[in-house]
Amino acid sequence: MKTVGDTLEPFKVVGVKPGFNDFMEHGQSAFEDITERSFPGKWKVIYFYPKDFTFVCPSEIIAFDKTLAEFTSRNCEVVGVSVDSHFSHWAWKNTPVNKGGIGNIQYPLVADLTKNIAR
What is the DSSP annotation of 43-86? Predict the structure, then answer.
């Protein structure tokens, strides 16, 4: 398990950008590549959850979003990771909380389809 100060092994995954409600918004894609070098000079909280559209942990994912200002005020980025695709992440973010979604959270969710980050 990685802890404070540990270095991440190289990875490159596709993530859903925060704030995007459409695949293409203002001529920009809702998706972006995220690597171990993303967010240079910042602390990172990278957490893992099992699958989108499950009732296992959406409350924790939403709680990270509700307290995001506390993290950013401390120069820290939050990133959620699961083995679902970026398309599934996008759909879950665009599903209202009262319908089983997580709403439009304001930090990236990334797709670890190969399970390289999880390993």
Answer: EEEEEE-S-TT-SSSHHHHHHHHHTHHHHHTTTEEEEEEESS-H
* C-alpha torsion angle, residues 87, 10, 41, 78 (rounded to 10): 30
State the pairing for strand pair 109-111/76-82.
parallel
Both tokens of residue 84?
Answer: 């679902």
Q: Is 99 helix (H, G, I), strand (E, B) or coil?
A: helix
Strand partners, 24: 29
CA atoms within 13 A on the CB side of 58: 18
Residue 64's nearest CA partner among 83, 86, 45 is 45
Tokens representing residue 46 in the block: 């990278």
pTM of the model: 0.86
What's the pLDDT tens digit per position in 43-91? Answer: 999 999 988 998 776 889 999 999 999 999 999 999 999 999 999 999 9
* Residues identified as active-site: 57
Q: Please, which residues bridge with residue 96 across strands?
A: none
